[in-house]
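This part of the workshop introduces the protein records we will be handling. The question running through the whole workshop is how a given chain folds. To make this concrete, we reproduce a full record directly below:
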Amino acid sequence: MLLIGEEVPDFEANTTHGRIKFSEWAKGSWVILFSHPADFTPVCTTEFMAFADIYDELRKRNVKLIGLSIDSIYSHIAWTRTIREKLGKDIPFPIIEDLSMNVARKYGMIHPAQSSTAAVRAVFFIDPEFKLRALIYYPLSNGRNMQEILRAIDAFQVSDKYGVATPANWQPGDEVIVPPPQTAEEAEKRLREGYDCADWFFCKKRI
């Protein structure tokens, strides 16, 4: 199982946009790699349309989006064409063919209690250093929330840029948390540094 902070596995695979080597395709970008159980299924179809809806917002944040399921490239192509023809939505991001389950196994997408032949709904947040920043698993029966995916990316990028943390339910524009003091001397000074403090260890600021 992949752990937060670890470097994610590299791989080569065929996609609907051609063959890629993941480390080269993703170089310099954040990546959201997500898996879905199967093409031509209703929940997955709603998710793909929803991912397409946030595609431009992800690009503004320097995030590349790529999907995966244990289906053939021909199935992926046929399904995305059906989504366009029947539901009026273009799918602008690549989808990985993974009939061998090579990538799915490397990334821990196969959960036998759910299915031994289909990937669960997994979302991997990968930074430009190829480190796993977060992962979310959903069962086959429930679709994902795209606004939480955008919010999480915003939070990670704010933390990296400003060296801060974000509180529960944080949204862009909200106050952020100043890292707590590490010494008694810093704790004495903290309350005089102009932050919005409830106590020496719990201070917020706007950025």
User: Anything to note?
Assistant: The chain has a mean pLDDT of 96. DSSP finds six helices and ten strands in the chain. The two ends are 36 Å apart (CA to CA).
